[in-house]
Amino acid sequence: MRTYILKRVIEIVPTVLMITFVVFVMMRSVPGDPVVPLLGDAYTEEDAIKVRQAYGLDKPVLVQYVIWLGKLVQGDWGTSILSGRPVLQDVLVRLPVTLELIVLSMVVALVIAIPAGIIGALRQNTWADYTATSVAMIGVSIPEFFIGVLLLLLFSIGLGGWLPSSGWVYLPGTCPMMVCGVSLWGNVQHVLMPALALGVGRAAILTRLLRTSMLEVIRTEYVTTARAKGLAERPVVLKHALKNALVPTVTVMGLQVGFLIGGAIVVETLFAMPGLGTFGIDAIIGRDYQQVQGFALVTAFAFVVINLVVDLTYTFLDPRIRYA
Amino acid sequence: MRANRLVVGLAASIALAIVFAGVTPAGAQKRGGTLRVAYGNDILGMDFYTTPGYEMVWVATNVACGLVSITPDGKFVPDAAESWTISPDGLLYTFKLKKNVLFHDGSKVDAAAVKFTFDYVLDPANRANMRQFLGAVHSVEVVDPHTVQIRLKQPYGFMMHVLAVYRMGMIIISPAVTQKYTPEERRAGKPEALVGCGPFKLVEWVKGTHLVMDRFDKYFESGVPYLDRVVIRTIKDPVTQMAAFKAGEIDFIADFSADHVDTLRAQNPRAQIMTGKETTPMVAMMKVTVPADGKPLSKDRAPHAIFNDIRVRKAVACYGMDRKEIVKIAYKGQATPWLGIIPPGTIDTVDVNHMCPYDPARAKALLAEAGYGPQKPLTFELMTNTEKSVFSVIATVIKEQMARIGVTANIRLVDKPSWMTTSTQDGPFDMYVEDLASLLTVDQNSYLSASTAAWNHSRHTDTKIDDFYARYAREMDPVKRKAIARELQEYSADKLYWNTISGSPFYQVAQPWMKDYVYQAEFKVLYKRVWLDK
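Output (structure tokens, whole complex):
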């Protein structure tokens, strides 16, 4: 097991490097030059050449990547071409916001999906199942931004400002800047709508998946045996059936993290949240290469690590799974 | 005060809409409070003299001070200077500085600081974006600690505009602080590196998060500013802006989407919605020349395959384009259909719409004359970008209008950097839709449309346009200048190097409790006299 974990941890490095390299090359392949917006209406070709030289943008892409990598190894994530701000500093400011959003979105998804999936399976072909399945189908079909706008209209405008429409308030002790709104209740208020907007779609997917898994598991012999031995329905479902049914769900949860990061871009933009999603999209739109690399590095790392955690979770859910 | 005598006849022609919202009598203002501002776009950087974009300018003009400022009706008023004179030949500007002007670090603003500022901007190594406006400056000399003289090479009718309002005006920078910190530190918004002499001092800027400015208690005008603090956040989505406004989470939207004004008005009947005659042109720019040697920006130019032919330009953009219909559909009628190179709200603008009446039959005849018709249909690419949804709407209407005259316009939707790179770096395009920079004066447009301008996206090579601009800039008589402006606009409309469709409306929105804000379009967003009545 230890060897397996070590092997997987080592694998993270080439995987993340490969992702950052692909992003690096792709960003330089798309049209658009960060020097043009940087110089704005004072643009001259002479100045553009000087700026490109200053940022090493005149060098071959591979050389630029090696330079970026060399600095990264020394802890230098580079500085934003457009704003001049250190990329790592901005990533650290924004990472907690997106982490909280993603974690809470997943919590929202699980809080909805687990009961709905179980009820749908146990009450198959009843009104409860049909309701769970239909709600799941609707949830899958509605994009995050649409749910977000509906929530905004309802809670921020319709109900006279029950929930704040935008911005962010940090949890006590987590403000990474000089000036922050800090309050536990304020944080909850600010994260609720974005987490719902992002979590509902994921809940729908997980509900359908869990229902299917549960349907398979509750028909297996060991569940029948447990019931025949007189075990109460609750431990049969929660202790024996659900644990095994969760294996494919957990796999998909890991993969869903990628979608959550993508969804965070939309939701953070809609709710004007200062998270990594808006950081990433602004970087891509501005062709701010250094900033894009910072975004790619963090998201790739997060995705790979979460999937490692997911793989390790299997051993807890199903003790028969052993990694050599 | 000589200042009033030096105002060069602007009052009648300046077409900024002014919303004074009932300026409060002195003493009635309430001090304190935090003004919460929403911007629709991010501040890109904080180095006053190199960062592009209005968002930074709207900060710089609150953090820094200049020699003079300008009122909405075009009067130049003192800022750090208490008075000024201009020599009869228009070549020597002498400014007397106020003695109580301090930078935020407590050091004095003196003539040496003013000279340092000019020298800094004029040094090409600093790539200051104001440098392009200082071509007429010969030298800046310190006469005594509180007197500074600017000597020009030739008369320039817009020197005061440059000092007061072009971009952010010539804001004064601290020599000590500028030398101590790097341009990167300024760009990154390090507060110690951005010491100004304006009413607010920078506390913190975190890109994409917020910008905070606090009242500068030693500001040279006693009693102002009234606000304790200004907090600026970026809210890009207009729906979220409206929700935040409705919920009272923000006091002021510095740039609000024209598409959503009616909805916001309906939701907030007491909101102060401010706008005026448009000072930004919405254009359908046609490329006139291409590099003959295939090298972008080459001086060796060849005719563009389609739009170098004036008959085709006139068929497509003059008689074949129904500007009224475009405005009706794209702006729900809330913009001015416009042909002239200078937007309807800019000084010395002239309505030349009559030169291009919508006439599809005439357009078809011109196309036939140019060799296009059913046997050889004209097809061109219409590039637009995703920055504003209205661009795509306009492109779609143009496509439909082109179809009516037998022309196919293939829309290519790109993102803003792709458009900017293609257009600025002489990339391949036939026509693009975009709104360009806001113009207070005709003179400002020379930086976008003279044949030598980097932003001359059509890449026309007609030096007659340059001559118009040069004559206009050097002419000190406002009446004669107006005549030159008319000539330029008629000539430009005839040649269609620069094809305007309409004005591009600009809106600002304030809560009813935000008092004494004075609307000056994109040119000035000042919080100095703003106070909160709540």
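Residues 101 and 253 of chain A are 15 Å apart (CA to CA).
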